[in-house]
Write a structure and sequence with these properties.
Length: about 190
């Protein structure tokens, strides 16, 4: 189940609306790192359809599996933010796949020969968006936005069309549109 289905995300920012080119702004959903650590540990099995996965990058179907295997607790995750960030990325990708499935979309990963990487490309029949996932902190959000800006400059939009959304999905904070047009979306506001 996604964070939206579990009642952790308020769904104020819709993936479907983002892919229609609508900006996503939202108030702070009130999630803290401790809340995210709890969500990662609790887990939620998604209802995926069988489909070919094009992304070479691997994620846990449910990050709570890694937590259980390591016998970790939310307090331990908060003390190791690098590890928590990896699990957070898996949780966000899981949710994006659930939301994309609802709109007949798919989630892929992008990495080119220069090692430019984008965590998630969500594609539907008529639109697409690129998403970086960062647990939090203004420095990490800036890194994600910079990667998206480099990606946008590098892609051939005559072949792919313009992205309907470029966004950094963050663990905590407010949802807003930056001056460069890249959105910042707290996971606690993302929904189908």
């Amino acid at each position: 189940m996604s964070l939206y289905e579990l009642g952790i995300s308020n769904g104020d920012i819709s993936l479907a609306a983002l892919l229609r080119g609508e900006p996503g702004e939202a108030i702070n959903p009130g999630l803290e790192l401790d809340d995210l650590a709890e969500a990662i540990c609790r887990g939620g099995w998604p209802a995926f359809r069988n489909q070919l996965r094009r992304a070479a990058k691997r994620h846990f179907v449910d990050p709570s599996l890694a937590v259980a295997a390591l016998q970790a607790a939310p307090s331990g995750l908060v003390r190791d933010l690098s590890f928590m960030g990896l699990l957070f990325e898996s949780m966000v990708i899981r949710d994006l796949k659930i939301y994309a499935q609802a709109i007949d979309g798919e989630v892929e990963h992008y990495q080119d020969s220069s090692q430019l990487e984008v965590d998630a490309i969500v594609r539907t029949a008529d639109s697409w968006g690129a998403f970086e996932v960062k647990l939090g902190g203004s420095k990490r959000v800036e890194e994600g936005a910079a990667a998206l800006a480099r990606f946008k400059a590098r892609i051939d939009t005559t072949k792919s069309g313009d992205p309907a959304a470029l966004a950094v999905i963050a663990g905590v904070g407010y949802g807003y549109v930056r001056k460069d047009g890249i959105q910042v979306i707290p996971i606690g506001c993302l929904g189908p």
